[in-house]
Amino acid sequence: MKNTFLISMLITCVAMGAHAQSYFNVDFNSGTLPAGWTTTGNYGFGNTCLTENGNENYMWMSLGGNPVSQPSFQSPSMDFSQSVGVKVIFTFKYSPQGGSTSCDGPDLNAEGLQLQYSINDGATWSTFRHLHPAGIDSETYLNSPISGGGITPFLNWTTIYAQLPAAGLTNNTKLRFYQAQSSGINFDFWALSGIFAIQNVSNEQHVENGVSVSLFPNPTQEGAIVSIQNQIEKLQIQIYSMEGKLLHSGYVTDGERILHADAFAPGWYIIRFPETDLKPQKILKY
Questions:
Q1: HEC secondary structure over 245-271
Q2: Dihedral angle at the C-alpha atoms of 165, 166, 168, 170, nearest 10 degrees?
Q3: I need a surface site. Which of 28, 74, 172, 194 has the fewest CB within 10 A?
Q4: Choice among 12-16, 85-89, 160-164, 215-219 with the minimum mean pLDDT
Q5: Cis ω on the peptide bond leading into residue 217 (within 30° of 0)?
Q6: Alpha carbon distance 136, 142 (integer Å)
Q7: Residue 81 burial (10 A CB sphere; 0-12, 13-18, 19+)
Q8: Buried b / exposed e along 188-211 (16+ C-beta atoms within 10 A)
Q9: Residue 224 buriedness (CB in 10 A; 0-12 / 13-18 / 19+)
Q10: Is the pLDDT of residue 84 over 50?
Q11: The sheet that has 137-138: what strands, in order across it?
Q12: How many of the other CB atoms lie within 10 Å of CB of 227?
């Protein structure tokens, strides 16, 4: 199915350092834990109960370990202190509730997956996303043990976009995926297919020879807008892959213009302005 990528342009000010920074990009295709990440409980890669996410391998989690502990997947410390904002993007799913042992999924509130951060080396954790097994996607933890069960959106691979709170933008922040409760070692399985974190980018202008160019939002999930001011002649805009392949070429004059490019996969792209002094810029589609 075709993916329409609407690019709208905010050329960020290079002098001020505003750019789309990727902090980490974790997948499990190698069948090993990424460097610096740790786990508690049981974990493995691939599972007869949980199908692949396309061609991507995944990590599953459940109660266990020696001593027995709650399932969690924790990052190393990261420096987010210079960021204007961090978005954590991950893909996950639950096993179906009521499945056989080693295939059973979560149904109680506290069995839902939580995304948390810590600014004191894991001494305390704050939840900023809670995924209730009944299909509730909440930014706060729900304390009452509401039963879920049945068919939920989370029985299919689901991508979550979670904004890290401003309190988590420190030079010593850890992230973790955590399950507070489980019915037993062979119950309440969940899985992660991929995780990455990107910096939000402010909508700053780039000015060259009196021409003001803006590209926003960047990063973008669905689309963006090119804003040009004080440009009388048509300005050519080209989109390249990171390998240098020209993917799209168009023109824009004074005002705003949405550029359409079909079937753009998630990843980095380069925006160039031929025959001008405007510096090439990078844009991230996630």
A1: CEEEEEEECCEEECEEEECCCCEEEEE
A2: 160
A3: 172
A4: 12-16
A5: yes
A6: 10
A7: exposed
A8: bbbbbbbbbbbbbbeebebeeeeb
A9: buried
A10: yes
A11: 38-40, 72-74, 174-179, 113-118, 126-131, 137-138
A12: 21
Average pLDDT over residues 244-270: 70
Q: How far apart are CA 171 and CA 51, in angstroms?
A: 37
CB 281 within 8 A of CB 204: no
What pLDDT, on the 0 to 100 scale, is given for residue 147?
Answer: 54
Taking CA 81 as the corner, what is the angle to CA 271 and CA 204, rounded to the nearest 5 degrees?
A: 35
Domains of the chain by range and CATH? 4-17+202-285 (2.60.40.3080), 22-199 (2.60.120.260)
Strands 42-45 and 59-62, sheet pairing = antiparallel
Beta strands of 141-266 (E only): which ranges? 158-163, 174-179, 190-199, 206-208, 211-216, 225-229, 235-241, 246-252, 255-257, 259-262
- Count CA atoms within 13 Å of residue 226 on its CB side: 25
Amino acid at 239: I
82 is written with which tokens? Answer: 């210079």
How many residues appear in the chain? 286
Buried b (16+ CB within 10 A) or exposed e, 269-281: bbbbbeeeebeeb
Q: Are 235 and 9 in contact (CB under 8 A)?
A: no
- Which amino acid type is present at position 281? Q
Strand partners, 196: 25, 89
Calpha distance 270→280 (Å, rounded)? 7
